[in-house]
Amino acid sequence: MLDNAKNRPDLPAEIARRRTFAIISHPDAGKTTLTEKFLLFGGAIQMAGQVRAKGEARRTRSDFMAMEKDRGISVSASAMSFDFREYRFNLVDTPGHSDFSEDTYRTLTAVDAAVMVIDGAKGVESQTQKLFEVCRMRDLPILTFCNKMDRESRDVFEIIDEIQQNLAIDVTPASWPIGVGRDFLGCYDILRDRLELMDRADRNKVAESIEINGLDDPKLAEHVPPQLLEKLREDLEMVRELMPPLDIELMAEGSLTPIWFGSAINSFGVKELMEGIARFGPEPQIQSAEPRQILPEENKVAGFVFKVQANMDPKHRDRVAFVRLASGHFQRGMKLTHVRTRKPMSITNPVMFLASDRELAEEAWAGDIIGIPNHGQLRIGDTLTEGEAIRVTGIPSFAPELLQGVRAGDPLKSKHLEKALMQFAEEGAAKVFKPSIGSGFVVGVVGQLQFEVLASRIELEYGLPVRFEPSQFASARWVNGARPAVEKFIDTNKQHIAYDHDGDIVYLTRLQWDIDRVERDYPEVRLTATKEMM
Ligand code: G4P
User: Fold this and answer.
1) Is the CB of 263 under 6 A from ligand 1?
2) Cross-referenced CDD domains, in alphabetical order (predicted)?
3) How far is the CA of 264 from the centre of ligand 1 (A)?
4) Does 153 sit in the ligand 1 pocket, CB within 6 Å?
5) Ligand 1, closest atom to CA 54?
């Protein structure tokens, strides 16, 4: 039962060894530290360095970017690949800021699993909860790492109970901590009956591992003091009675999470977690698409853009579109069809973010993430194939929850502002609406912090100070329906009509009441809070 979660037994070996996942956590739980240790054990870096960018810069930009800057090695933004044993891990970064954004949602469309990191002293915190809900929308398998066990932490049963209660997911311990805080010795590896002892002296060392023949093995007493051993036996007895065993299928559908305990900073428990990711996966999964789904083992290449990042190099205004390969074996120089425009694209300089460096991707397989530099042709939600007109689905654009007007500090620079705004809209960093009456733009985001991030990016990347100001509107809805009905609707509601950066019609309003009224008065017009990117 515990062997590899091979729910897709026909996958070619190159695909079956891929594990594409993201880390979700509340700020400060230890995501950066854990990432660093992944890279260390993945052989990607020699020594875990100091990844300590502080304050806003770190919160608002990707942590990977902060790492890149602070460590002087080129890791990447957005996705990193490294090998662990015979596996290839692709770790996709979730945005570092604390507001839930659709960016996060879309990132999670590119992965097959998520690692949830929680702080043992704090339990399930708000941001973890929000990110977890996003994973739940996609039924993503979750592996949990309870970090900072070297510090005073909460009672382990209490932590598990909190996860079960707050997140409505069953929990099964894969390891069990022995002692807490200063007395923390290590863990009992429940899955393999091993004792893992933490070395406090060397933070980059892999724990000493002692094979144990069940809980009655006298070897245990050689390493664990009597009181702690008694507690361990009692605890494990309760675990056996109260908690469900690891069931791969339940894990794969996202209703059961295995939990490992450890201390990322001490490199402890990290290897076991990586082994868990390798063993339980899952492998690259089937991708939903229209008119048919895409199987990873298909010979032909298909992939979709889940993220666009502009200005990675401020000297060049190029963009990198991050593409998750859904099927096939990609080779550099391939000609792919850009399904939205039906145009061929030669992919001559794709990059892959191997943790040690940003490299030209000579080849990639289903499950991998490649970056394709382009001048704006590739947008979020676009599908690339070897010719077939398939469109990947499930990458929505959400109606923003906060709207503000925006003005350039210098009124003569409004053209520049338009350009900057369009770029951020294409990146998916904000919604930009051009009202049909009057001048100026309305910018929509999901969390307040995004306005600040935008203002600072516009200033930094375009040298353009801007001011956000209250807007008369509070909600936006996309307008759909039969053409004559929509035209009539637009005619009579001009002061509420705007266009998004794709030119799609949007209804802006202050009141939910207005939205209800439209639904009543214009039965042929549909107002929607999401739009599929296409
Ligand atoms: P984040 O990316 O999730 O925001 O967290 P990050 O890894 O930056 O870790 C947040 C803080 O927690 C850091 O401390 C880090 O050193 C510490 N930390 C991470 N893992 C462990 C652990 O296993 N045990 C303990 N005791 N601490 C851990 P900091 O004070 O922000 O930085 P620094 O002073 O340590 O450099």
Assistant:
1) yes
2) RF3
3) 8
4) no
5) 31
**How much is the pLDDT for 6?**
56
Q: Alpha carbon 461 to chain centroid distance?
A: 25
**Mean pLDDT score of the chain, rounded to an integer?**
86
pLDDT of residue 319: 81
What is the 37 CA–ligand 1 centroid distance (Å)? 12
Is 95 assigned to a binding site? yes
| Ligand 1 atom at minimal distance to the Cα of residue 36 | 7
Neighbours of 527 (CB within 10 A): 22
Is 28 assigned a ligand-binding role in the annotation? yes
Q: CA triplet 284, 287, 290: central angle to 5 degrees?
A: 165
Task: Using the mean position of ligand 1's atoms as its centre, give its distance from the Cα of residue 30 in Å.
Answer: 5
The pTM assigned to this predicted structure is: 0.82
> Tokens 């009509």 appear where?
497
CA distance 74 to 322: 17
Q: How far apart are CA 402 and CA 79, in angstroms?
A: 29
Structure tokens at 24: 């979700």
| For the CA of 266, the nearest atom of ligand 1 | 23
265 lines ligand 1 (CB under 6 A): yes
3-state SS assignment for residue 459 = helix
DSSP state of 523: T
- Residue 285: its pLDDT value, please? 94
| Beta-carbon count within 10 A of 438 CB | 8
Cβ atoms within 10 A of the Cβ of 484, count?
A: 9
Measured in degrees and rounded to the nearest 5, phi and psi for residue 48 equal: -65, 125
Q: Kindly report the CA angle at 251 between 247 and 257, in degrees rounded to 5?
A: 100
- Choose among 504, 486, 495: nearest CA to 433: 504
**Structure token digits, residue 241:** 């009675």
Nearest CA to ligand 1 atom 4: 28
Q: Is the ipTM of this complex over 0.90?
A: yes
Q: Is 94 annotated as a binding residue?
A: yes
Question: 4-8, 39-43, 57-61: which has the minimum mean pLDDT?
Answer: 57-61
Nearest CA to ligand 1 atom 9: 30
User: Residue 25, annotated ligand binder?
Assistant: yes
- For the Cβ of 52 lying below 6 angstroms from any atom of ligand 1, the answer is yes
Joined together, the tokens standing for residue 490 give 């637009």
Can you name the residues that pair with 287 across neighbouring β-strands?
A: 294
* Distance (Å, whole) CA 237 – CA 216: 12
